[in-house]
Amino acid sequence: MRMVDLDGPGPLLDAVHRDVLVPSFPPAELGSAEELTADVADGSTVVSAVLDADKTPVAAAVGHWSARARVQLLNHLAVLPSQRGTGVGRQLLRHVLEEWRMAHRPCAILAEVEHPGAHAGSEEHGDPTARLRFYGRFGAVALDLPYFQPALTPEAGRMYGMALLVLHLDPELAGPEPGTVSSHPLRMFMLEYLAGTEGSRQDTDDATKALFAAIDRPGGVHTLPLEDPARFPMSRPV
Fold it and tell me: 190 falls in which pLDDT band (50, 70, 90)?
């Protein structure tokens, strides 16, 4: 197995999207190959992959860097079913976390995952509860937010019933109370994410208002242990 960081569009990036990402995520959680290529080309998105002996990708991680908010988002981390349980996913996550810390010095590295209370597991897409255990081994915590993934395409719509995890937190982003995260960078990140995916419209729907009300709570955003997902708030379509 070999770890590679993709430095631009090309056949390997196409193979990562087609052979690793598409089988691993429902359409609403994944943009098109053309969008991924454009994002990698403009430098806003980075992709790392694990290749087998035949130079075929068997795992991949996709991250988006928000320079304004200084937040790195792990959009996707996928391992083909044949490689799950081999340690490939752990090696890949360790690699990208170290690479992203060195490259950008982010104040936070976040990851969006399915809420176990809203999404059932499957062999194809994996088990949301097992995914939380995986990230828990890296010390991740969940943010106390009714999170949803913005609509990546107009056709797909938003992905409700999601959780936003913290994989890395710089002390400068710590909130005023223990176990909290400062609201300002999270608000900046979420506004940018929504504008980049859903456009510059003014969102006044209940789900968006609930998300920003939770971000803006006095005292910062509380973190929650991954061992008790029943405590995670859940966003719902309105």
Answer: very high
Confidence tier at 46 by pLDDT (50, 70, 90): very high
How many folded domains does the chain comprise? 2
Do residues 88 and 121 share a domain? Answer: no
Of 77, 102, 127, the last residue of a domain is: 102
Q: Cα separation of 93 and 77, whole Å?
A: 8
Per-residue pLDDT band for 173 (boundaries 50, 70, 90) equals confident
Read off the pTM: 0.90
- Is residue 70 within 8 A of residue 104, CB to CB? The reply is yes
How many Cβ atoms from other residues are within 10 Å of residue 137's Cβ? 10
Residues 65-81, mean pLDDT to the nearest whole number: 91
Question: Looking at the structure, do residues 113 and 87 belong to the same domain, yes or no?
Answer: no
Statement: residue 33 has pLDDT above 80: yes
Mean pLDDT of all residues in 94-120: 90
C-alpha–C-alpha distance, residues 56 and 140, integer Å? 30
| Contacts of 51-58 spanning 24+ positions with Cβ under 8 A | 51/1, 51/2, 51/3, 51/4, 52/1, 53/1, 55/2, 56/15, 56/19, 57/12, 57/15, 57/16, 57/19, 57/20, 58/1, 58/20, 58/82, 58/83, 58/88
What CATH code is carried by the domain that includes residue 79? 3.40.630.30
CA–CA gap between residue 109 and residue 100 (Å, rounded): 8
Contact 113, 135 (CB under 8 A): yes
